[in-house]
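2024-03-11 09:14:02 INFO receiving multi-entity request
2024-03-11 09:14:02 INFO entity count = two
2024-03-11 09:14:03 INFO echoing inputs for audit
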Amino acid sequence: MVAGKKMTEQTPEEIELLLPWHAAGTLSARDSRRVDEALACDPELACQYAAIREEYAETIDLNESLGAPSGRALQKLFAAIDAEPARQPKPSLNVATRLGSFFSSLSPRTLAWSASLGALALVLQAGVIAAVLLHGQPASFETASLSDSETITRDIGATPPPRALVRFAPAARISDITALLDKYQASIVDGAKGGMFRLQFAAVSKDEFAKLLSRLQGEKIVSLAAATP
Amino acid sequence: MESHSFQRNYCYNLKKLGLPIEPSILLIRPILRDGQLSATLAASDDVLIHRIAQGDRLAMQVLYGRHHVRVFRFGLRLVRDQQLAEDLISEVFLDVWRQAGKFEGRSAVSTWLLAITRFKALSALRRRRDVELDEEAADAIEDTSDDPEVTVQKKDTSAVLRQCLSKLSAEHREIVDLVYYHEKSVEEVAGIVGIPENTVKTRLFYARKKLADLLTASGIERGWP
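2024-03-11 09:21:47 INFO inference complete, emitting structure
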């Protein structure tokens, strides 16, 4: 029965302190794992643990040997309870519980009749609501400002500025392209996909844009220019 | 025989209360120590407390049946007086009857019962002006069994260990009992005794150290501490 390390004057370690709870099986899974790991690699701790298990078993035996109380305690308790003022059951504040107890107090027949009446009332209510809606609603949809003489138009904003797909000549330099963009008041709105750039121009009429496009086509550094939405 | 009658009455009371009879109840006595009930019953303890709060005497009887032995033993180990320990049980369960409505379920019912028992036991000891929680008080109590040295001559190590456990101070006894016998976690012991969790751990450590000293004095060397 040689157990454990000499810890007389030392502060016990955390794992060592947990050993009794490990023996009683009341540790959390995490702590229990920690203790198991420590026990596996520390033989002195394992010896101490064996001593603890012995103490554990003897404590149970000792308590079990204390016997049980006589029936006098129960008699005394109920005599005292009888002497207590009568207690009114407290109404539960929980609405669900109260509803539950109310419905459970009804007989099945009453409950069936109540459910039927409730369903009938729902059907009647639905009928009344439908009738009111059908009578009160005009035949077609009407807005407050709508006039039959006016056509309904919606302004969806200004016409989008014209755009063109342009392919620059391979020899074109950045400075040339920049100058061309300035000249035509254009900007690149989309990158070079397949060597084509999407250019956006200042708002002009359709005819002016066609002329602009043909001028653009004639530029040295432009190999292709085509209108695009 | 007694255990069968206990099971019969217990199941009968559960049936009357409309509580479920778990299959484990039928095995209570064979597999568990006296008065200890399966953990599966812990939840229905809360139901019983709720019914007791409504004034249900039968629920009180069932709760008493489940826990009175443990309450008695815990109280007896603290006050060391059979008569006083029996009085304690009535007081503890009467408190439960009165306070059930205030039970919030933050701890297990068994933990709550032990906390009440401890409080009642210490109050009773104070009333008797016997509040000394040191070894002198323990030594003063007559022990009818053999002296540890005598027992060790009989080569009964277990008996010596039990005697040394009885010789611990009340403070150490209660923590040993709560952890080993009542199987309370660190948190629960802290709640019952009203001390921080770290103190619970170190107090049990020093209780064990004291036990080892008592064993050494009785001629049993365990090599720890």
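2024-03-11 09:21:48 INFO post-check: Helices of chain A lie at 14-24, 29-41, 43-64, 72-83, 95-104, 108-136, 174-183, 206-217.
2024-03-11 09:21:48 INFO post-check: The radius of gyration of chain A is 47 Å.
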